Amino acid sequence: MTIVGSLVLSLACRGAMSPKSSADSGYGRYDSGSAWDQDGDADADTDTDSDTDTMPPETESDFFSLAPAPAPDFLLIANPDRDTVSRVTVPELEVITAPVGSEPQAVQLSSTYDVAITFNEGSDDASVLPTDTLEEIRVDLRPALDAMQLSPDGTWAIAFNSLDADDGEVGSTQSVKEASFVHLASATSTGLALGFQPRQLHFSDDGARAVFLGDAWLALVQLDVEPLDIQLVQIADDLLDPPDSEELLLNPAGTRALIRQRDNSRLVLVDLDALSTSTLPTGGTPSDLDMHPDGVHAVAVARGSSELWIYDLESPQAPRVVDMPEDETLGAVTFGPDEATPALLYSTVSGQSRFASWDLSDDSITVHPLPKPVVAVGLDPTGQTALFVHDDLDADDMDVAYDGKHGVTLVNTRTWLTNDYVLPAEPTQFAHSDDGAHGFLIMDREERLEVLDYGTLLMDDVELRSEPVHLGTLPGTSWAYVSQEHELGRLSLYDAATGTLKTMTGFELNAGIEIEEDR
To answer: What domain count does the chain have?
Structure first.
């Protein structure tokens, strides 16, 4: 997808699915002659449940997940055209640029912000960099890998070949069933054969376990023992034609995994200690699977039977079922940070201009109108403000002001006050400040940053000097950053607390840098 400060790594990295991962390629499209159509494919998935549901799968957007390139007081930027990485301090805008491997496609930071790693696609290696000096240690990787994820504790970076990535040309002997495990502290790499090409990689919350998900197999790697070893668990009865594995959810301890498969009316439960499997009942067409904010329960949305199935992960065999409104199509759920925040129920494939709020205290569900159908949903970190994204395709029940237009709707989840905006172009990335005070939005080929005040639900334009590419925020601060199209590198930093915009041009060369400040 993208390189610097992107929402998900460009090399087909998929975010850990606890509590929710990003979809493969953004959001679906509505075809007024049929149904929501993801990636231009009008073929709906068939459903073997008794409940009729022939709509395609729900999609989960990558709009609201930030790659960990920013730290509270600096930003690391990969420069693939120059084979370098730049560190930019904030707010001073001092720059250090250091060489890395060929074509660095992403940079990630450890949880303590003291070590970074780049994935160098052109040279099949990674660069481990202490962030104070950027003195590189080069680590070899297995050839032709295309994705890398960092463990939550920042101890390991794992590179692998994602099933959903474009393999491209084969220039050397290679396997799609391998992974490289990079230990950041020692800057060493271990290659392992996985036995299958994974769709996704997940970590336990403590970073001690890595779990690779395939269609027929699950692979467990215990990261806190030596030597590293792969343990396989069969998750499909039919090894020749297994169902697509669409979602995996780990409990916080990393001892149990729940798997949602295409066209399967039961969930697969994996005991990762015993390496055994069983199945759990669920309703018709399970279309989403998420961790409840209490960290104890998992929730499956059964779109075909209009039900929510709630599993206690310690004893999941007897789930609790909550009925959803039968005359609504609700196939996905987004949770806030705690049980006091209502969950949002919606569908990205129904073509209906509405969503529902689920009060977790009493299981009441209320349906709310929207000006246009939903293609992506995000909650700010406090859960007080929701953003609903609408594309430019039309629907029968939409507001006429949105005819052929993109848009966003801001919703206060405490009062249900709403404010919606028609947009001049397709929104490409969103970000939120950690305190939930502000949101930020950039659009395709629009030289502006949109600043969203979540207290008032108002949006204001901030002019940029060139087309924006990537957007993010610095942890624990009021700063947002926007990287822009420029042959020498251009970065704008916006302080939402003061309304100050600083723009730096030329950071890729680390020379001849121009800094401009607007207020």
So the answer is: 1
